[in-house]
Design goal:
By secondary structure, the protein is α/β, with parallel strands linked by helices. The protein has 2 domains: 2-115 and 294-324, Quinone Oxidoreductase, Chain A, domain 1; 127-266, NAD(P)-binding Rossmann-like Domain (Rossmann fold, 3-Layer(aba) Sandwich), CATH 3.40.50. The protein has helices spanning 43-50, 116-136, 153-164, 176-184, 198-205, 223-228, 266-269, 273-288, 305-313; strands spanning 2-8, 17-23, 31-40, 65-73, 85-89, 99-103, 107-109, 144-147, 168-173, 189-192, 211-216, 230-238, 260-262, 298-301, 321-324. Strands 3, 4, 5, 6, 7, 14 and 15 form a 7-stranded mixed β-sheet that branches. Strands 10-9-8-11-12-13 form a 6-stranded parallel β-sheet, sandwiched between helices. Helix 2 (116-136) packs across helix 3 and helix 2 (116-136) crosses helix 8.
């Protein structure tokens, strides 16, 4: 069987994402054949494409997560059947394809209440947020947290979940349009980082106390300032590097207020079926209770993966982009 796929053969710009046809085998023991309906585009994918992350062997198919329909199951698969809608998340890549063979333990059935595009755009982001608010720093009622790039896809959901837990949320954004998005997601205070010193503004908004946690997906440009925003025993959660990797720093820099820094990776938190099931159950419970709202993404054909990367890197996404293969 042959299927359409986006193959990255060398690191570089979006034009390196090339649509080709690749061969697929039949699913073996413990595997499924999944026909993708919606493929999530992550900022992580842009790091892989440029070579900032060298975690995909080239030539290779990018893509960490997708949603589709099970077309065949291999021997030993019992929790999924042909015709089931299923989602998967994996650091083994392979998502930018119309069909793929997948280890069935990585996939889980989708409930009827969420659409394919919504699920593809929201699940990995919401898994990430669950990790951020419970594993990386346990957000508690009455705390104040700072969320950088608060109108971004993950950060929109992060603001919502922090607010639902009773935290006061300060968000940094680049424009009034993005401020409106962040406010709608629960941000209590907005800092325009292009025209304001976010460290000074946090100091003023907290009467010099600082925040319990900073959620920083920006990296190099904000890291040092983020440390200066923390309260005693505060935690800097660095979960991305859109401005570039963080420069080396001295552990003694943390002694000023007994600070902590963590760099969590989602795949380390869902290594076993039991861990994955916890994240699945808590994520769908968060949707059901209205803690977070699924994202309504922009949808592009699989053949326009390069355009999706351009939109994402230009900061022009509404919060999510998914690719839809031709059926």
């Amino acid at each position: 069987m042959r299927t359409d796929a986006i193959v990255l053969s060398r690191h570089g710009g979006p034009k390196e994402l090339v649509l080709v046809q690749v061969e697929l085998a039949e699913p073996g023991p413990g595997e499924i054949l999944l026909r993708h309906a919606a493929i999530n585009v992550n900022f992580h994918d842009t790091y892989v494409r440029t070579g900032q992350y060298r975690t995909l062997a080239l030539p290779g198919i990018p893509g960490l997560d997708a949603v589709g329909v099970v077309e065949a199951v291999g021997p030993g698969v019992t929790h999924l059947a042909v015709g089931d809608r299923a989602a998967w998340i994996s650091g083994a890549y392979g998502g930018y394809a119309a069909r793929r063979i997948l280890n069935a333990d990585l996939a889980f059935r989708l409930p009827d209440g969420i659409g394919d595009a919504q699920a593809a755009a929201s699940l990995m982001k919401t898994f990430t947020v669950r990790m951020l608010v419970k594993d990386s720093h346990r957000v508690q009622a009455g705390q104040t947290v700072l969320v950088h790039a608060a109108a971004g896809g993950v950060s929109q959901l992060l603001c919502q979940w922090c607010k639902a837990l009773g935290a006061r949320v300060i968000g940094t954004v680049s424009s009034e349009a993005k401020a409106e998005v962040a406010r709608a997601c629960g941000a209590d205070e907005i800092i325009f980082y292009r025209s304001e010193d976010f460290v000074a503004r946090v100091d003023a908004l907290t009467d010099g106390a600082g925040v319990a946690a900073v959620y920083d997906s920006v990296g190099r440009d904000t890291f040092a300032g983020s440390l200066r925003c923390l309260d005693y025993s505060g935690t800097l959660v660095n979960f991305g590097q859109s401005s570039g990797p963080v420069e080396p720093f001295r552990p003694s820099d943390l002694a000023v207020r007994s600070l902590s820094v963590t760099r969590p990776i989602l795949f380390h938190k869902i290594r076993t079926p039991e861990q994955l099931r916890t994240y699945v159950d808590e994520t769908f419970d968060a949707f059901d209770r209205g803690v977070v709202r699924p994202i309504d993404p922009d949808i592009l054909p699989l053949s326009r993966a390069a355009d999706a990367h351009r939109i994402l890197e230009a900061g022009e996404s509404r919060g999510g982009i998914v690719l839809a293969p031709d059926q």
